[in-house]
Design a protein that fits this description.
alpha+beta; elongated; 8-stranded antiparallel β-barrel
Length: 184
């Protein structure tokens, strides 16, 4: 009976350290850049979005992204209007999301390393399984993720009118760069 308070104290301390350790493996984004580039015969189209949000649980490998479609900024305002109204239908489908798992990385490494992400991307009301190769770097207080991958517009039922077929590529290159801070 004399040792019971000691056992409870021991359990509380170790449980508290365990919970703290779990929290120490979670990160939330503090800055983001999602850029897409369409290389078409008549004209190149590109836009950047810096309003994306993401969270990562390094211990489990879980990762989520949410990208507001209307936050893509184009060089020409007319392109931005057509993108939101005619192609992405942003009022109906306001964001693109990704829920997946990061694999093939060493969570203890402090150097840039290759990683693979598998999961479901939902955009324009369509969900697709995708696999993306990228790079990540983890340190004590922050993490960075970079990747570049193609998106085939027809996979997400994004239609290109025949009138502008030569202005928009059927496959666009997407480049992402996210910086995260550790959640305490």
């Amino acid at each position: 009976m004399k040792f019971r308070p000691f056992i409870y104290l021991f359990f509380i301390i170790h449980f508290g350290l365990f919970v703290h350790e779990l929290k120490a493996q979670k990160y939330k984004s503090i800055s983001s850049s999602v850029h897409f580039f369409s290389d078409a015969p008549m004209e190149d189209i590109e836009a950047t979005n810096q309003d994306g949000q993401s969270a990562v649980d390094i211990e489990k490998g879980d990762i989520v992204f949410s990208i507001p479609i209307k936050s893509f900024v184009f060089e020409k305002s007319l392109m931005q209007e057509h993108f939101n109204e005619n192609y992405m239908e942003s009022d109906k489908y306001p964001k693109a999301t990704f829920i997946g798992t990061v694999t093939e990385y060493d969570p203890s490494s402090k150097e840039w390393q290759n990683a693979k992400t598998n999961g479901k991307m939902k955009m324009h009301g369509v969900e697709q399984d995708i696999e993306v190769n990228g790079k990540l770097k983890i340190n004590e207080t922050s993490m960075e993720i970079n990747a570049k991958f193609p998106i085939k517009l027809e996979d997400y039922k994004i239609k290109i009118p025949k009138v502008v077929f030569y202005n928009i590529a059927e496959i666009v290159d997407v480049t992402i760069s996210f910086t995260y801070e550790k959640i305490d």
